[in-house]
Amino acid sequence: MKILIVEDEPKTGSYLRQGLGEAGYVVDLVDNGFDGLHQAESGEYDLVVLDVMLPGLDGWQVLQGLRRGHPHLAVLFLTARDQVEDRVKGLELGADDYLVKPFAFAELLARVRTLLRRGRAPSEPSVLRAADLEVDLLRRRVTRAGQRIELTAKEYALLELFLRRRGEVLPRSLIASSVWDMNFDSDTNVVDVAVRRLRLKIDNDFEPRLIQTVRGMGYVLDVPA
Amino acid sequence: MKILIVEDEPKTGSYLRQGLGEAGYVVDLVDNGFDGLHQAESGEYDLVVLDVMLPGLDGWQVLQGLRRGHPHLAVLFLTARDQVEDRVKGLELGADDYLVKPFAFAELLARVRTLLRRGRAPSEPSVLRAADLEVDLLRRRVTRAGQRIELTAKEYALLELFLRRRGEVLPRSLIASSVWDMNFDSDTNVVDVAVRRLRLKIDNDFEPRLIQTVRGMGYVLDVPA
DNA sequence: CCTCGACAATCAAAATCTTCATCGTCTCTC
DNA sequence: GAGAGACGATGAAGATTTTGATTGTCGAGG
């Protein structure tokens, strides 16, 4: 499997090359849009990892150029923290997946694997809903009854977990392990506190209440019957 | 490979059983010291995961009893957050490794694998040093010139990283990925700030300075020539 | 030798997370 | 249905972390 990395920042570039190399892929690295497009068009790659911010041609121009001749080449693009619109634009232009800097390498590797396994990914649905609550995964943006709601990192992680497993009762231990990456603790109530904070933001001023407590079991998010 | 879990807290116990089961081990679970010791003595297990806090016989008593007849059975014991002395005591009594609650399941699995692979683990050195700086990994305790120094979680993680790779220049990106589990970010100076905080605690009031800045490259911890 | 630009250090404010103690409420038992 | 005990909710303090702006410093090029 051969991967092309288009990334101008040297540190990031070499990190990616090394990491993916060690993961067993053949990796080429170029540091600008022109070379990126040119190389990618050679047809020898299975996947392109594309930074958006590039000197010369930027990421979208490369993507656009590429899609003309190679509609099926998998493209994973990297976007900066706040350039949220970028992601949307990127996907519209035909990228297959995106990743927001900073990200963990494990995350990147997981996506690369997915893309290579199933070829161009049918992008997963980008909005989760429950009643009038909406979570736009792309923009990391949450609204309820049309009202924008700001969440912190943990709150967002927690909400996403709830929504992805809507209707399931999630034990505290499961929540702890997903959101905090730690399990098996008895003497802490971080989960409770986090749920409370989340409730204050998404459930307090609205109806119906979505997050319910199941005594002795955990919490569920669902629209009450 | 067969594992015995001795854990009285039901949630933790079943979580462990399920997790290790899914990882491909045969698992038995008991919830008290008496049964734990009795079962373990049967000789059919390759590893015992032992909680310290137990009704009836506590973890150490089990361990002690066990070591009499089965000096080579691998034992991994679980200790609560602050009961630091427990760990020392545990290792002295012949446990092979320990884990502090709360911990990530991945962590547990890693240790279980290590123990099963190489049998009873030659416990790794438990103190790291550089000049008059000492880090006791078991107690998570840091001293410089004999003076106790309190570190936060991140500070400790950072220091441990530095010490484990003493003399190596660590690029910011590497530090970010190890301590924060995130890479590839340019527009943040968390690493710088963290290094500063650490320096304030371990380097500011002492000689020689251990953490050095290598311009354009990163940071090193070493005793200056 | 001086200046400029890149890189680091520093500082303080703001955001976030964790802990802890207390209070309320549910459930089981008698 | 009253009481006890477990479980969850709540509030607020405290600690930690992150962010952003500012200041300082090194090194290359003129």
TrEMBL record, chains A, B:
GO terms for biological process: regulation of DNA-templated transcription. GO terms for molecular function: phosphorelay response regulator activity; transcription cis-regulatory region binding. The modification 4-aspartylphosphate is found at D51. GO terms for cellular component: cytosol; protein-DNA complex. Keywords: DNA-binding, Phosphoprotein, Transcription, Transcription regulation, Two-component regulatory system. Residues 2-116 form the Response regulatory domain. Residues 125-223 bind DNA. The keyword Transcription regulation applies. The keyword Phosphoprotein applies. It comes from the Bacteria. Transmembrane segments: none annotated. PROSITE patterns: OMPR_PHOB (PS51755), RESPONSE_REGULATORY (PS50110). SUPFAM superfamilies: CheY-like (SSF52172). Residues 125-223 form the OmpR/PhoB-type domain. NCBIfam families: cztR_silR_copR. PANTHER family: REGULATOR OF RPOS, TRANSCRIPTIONAL REGULATORY PROTEIN CUSR-RELATED. This is Winged helix family two component heavy metal response transcriptional regulator. It comes from Marichromatium gracile (Chromatium gracile).
